[in-house]
């Protein structure tokens, strides 16, 4: 009976490890009750390797001219070259939420790449806790890059738009 329970526990822990990997989780804590005074507490965790990965990602852009890549990718909506958050014209997210590029579904976007914007003009909306927060242009200029897509999740401090 003890060996059967041990085998079942091992299978249970393996299933938790698979669940951890399949869902890209870093940790699971589970308590399995066997009776009134008998239980199994399991903590399955894994060390992730993202900290070493960003160093090589951020190291090459300063060596290459940062001005060359953004100009060639001006219409793109991606963050592949350089760190847009370090760009002097970057408008960053003041909160965590969902970014919307237009005032309502099906409406024209607030801005497009190449558009002139005035200081205080709405660039996009970030929805946080069912509240629509208009993100204004901090200065007048030209929209060089839009770094988010409509309906995408954004983090605090994430670059949203480049205005020069």
TrEMBL record:
Question: Which residues does the UniProt record annotate as the domain Lipoyl-binding?
Answer: 88-164
Reading the lineage from the top rank, the first entry is: Bacteria
Tell me which Gene Ontology terms the entry assigns under biological process.
fatty acid biosynthetic process
Matching InterPro entries:
AcCoA_biotinCC, Biotin_BS, Biotin_Carboxyl_Carrier/Decarb, Biotin_lipoyl, Single_hybrid_motif
Q: Where is the composition biased (Pro residues)?
A: 49-64
Q: Which GO terms describe its molecular function?
A: acetyl-CoA carboxylase activity
Which pathway is this protein engaged in?
Lipid metabolism; fatty acid biosynthesis
Give Gene Ontology CC terms: acetyl-CoA carboxylase complex
Q: Which Pfam families match?
A: Biotin_lipoyl
* Region Disordered, residue ranges: 34-98
Q: Which residues form the signal peptide?
A: none
For this UniProt record, the keywords arranged alphabetically read as follows:
Biotin, Fatty acid biosynthesis, Fatty acid metabolism, Lipid biosynthesis, Lipid metabolism
Q: Which SUPFAM superfamilies match?
A: Single hybrid motif
Q: Which NCBIfam families match?
A: BCCP
Q: Which PANTHER family match?
A: OXALOACETATE DECARBOXYLASE ALPHA CHAIN
**What's this chain's function?**
This protein is a component of the acetyl coenzyme A carboxylase complex; first, biotin carboxylase catalyzes the carboxylation of the carrier protein and then the transcarboxylase transfers the carboxyl group to form malonyl-CoA.
Q: What is this protein called in UniProt? A: Biotin carboxyl carrier protein of acetyl-CoA carboxylase
Q: Which organism is it from?
A: Rhabdonatronobacter sediminivivens
